[in-house]
Design a protein that fits this description.
By secondary structure, the protein is α+β, with helices and mostly antiparallel strands. The protein has nine helices and seven strands; from the N terminus they run ββαααααααββαβαββ. The strands form two sheets. A five-stranded mixed beta sheet has the order 4-3-5-6-7, sandwiched between helices. A two-stranded antiparallel sheet has the order 1-2.
Length: 245
């Protein structure tokens, strides 16, 4: 944007970011991210400006917006930010524990917000319903997480339980504990869900053996195993759909 010189009346360029004061609070009001949000709405802010608000304050010689730009260089998308370890964040100079925690908490809130909209459909009718519910939350996890969804006679979800966190490539949920939880909540059936950090949802030999053992034990206590779904990178495997239950 061009402006006129007050003495000559000739156009001059507006100072660029290198000429701005180092503190955002010293910027013109219409350029401050927080003031822009309040005046024009959060949807008008760029990803970098939103991150700058979460970061809050800068460091010596660098504004919060400068730090936000650096974050976007290291992690180009919010999804990239969502499946990185705290150690990777600390490699970005100027980001302390408080700033890192604020950003990671905001990303987790976004994940849960996405889940809430899906959880408004309480009845599970097909494997795609379950995959859609857990894909966003589980596809980028670095360790295997095993969850169980318990349902009543109308296939309405009555309880959810995370049974175990495994290593990078293995989770070992205990069949007895899974069924005990179901009996306590008077469940008629259940669906298991776990992720493969590799991104490949193809079931392993252990996955198949566990599913058979759980289905057999479930029949003995009157709880039907409707499905076992493995979450990969935007793909999933359903034992029920594959005819393995």
């Amino acid at each position: 944007m061009m402006a006129s010189d007050e003495t000559t009346g000739t156009p001059r360029e507006r100072p660029d970011s290198a000429d701005r004061p180092c503190r955002i609070k010293d910027w013109p009001e219409d350029e401050k991210p927080r003031e822009k949000l309040l005046r024009r709405g959060e949807h008008m802010l760029s990803d970098t400006e939103l991150l700058a608000i979460l970061i809050g304050t800068g460091t010596a010689g660098r504004t919060a917006l400068d730090l936000a730009r650096r974050v976007k260089q290291v992690f180009p998308t919010f999804r990239d930010m969502g499946h990185t370890s705290a150690g990777q964040w600390r490699l970005i100079k100027g980001l302390g524990t408080a700033k890192i925690c604020r950003i990671r908490a905001a990303i987790e809130i976004a994940r849960r917000f996405g889940e809430e909209s899906l959880r408004e459909r309480p009845r599970v009718t097909q494997s795609a319903d379950v995959a859609a519910l857990y894909m966003l939350r589980m596809r980028d996890l670095k360790r295997e997480i095993f969850r169980v969804i318990y349902l009543n006679s109308r296939n309405v979800v009555i309880h959810e339980q995370e049974m175990e966190e495994g290593t990078v490539n293995q989770a070992n949920p205990v069949v007895r504990e899974i069924l005990r939880e179901g009996l306590e909540h008077l469940a008629v059936s259940l669906i298991c869900v776990h992720n493969h950090p590799s991104g490949d949802p193809a079931p392993s030999r252990e996955d198949r053996e566990f599913t058979r053992a759980l289905a057999t034990a479930g029949k003995a206590v009157g709880i039907r195993v409707l499905d076992h779904i493995i979450i990969g990178d935007n793909r999933y495997h359903s034992f029920a759909d594959a005819g393995d239950l």
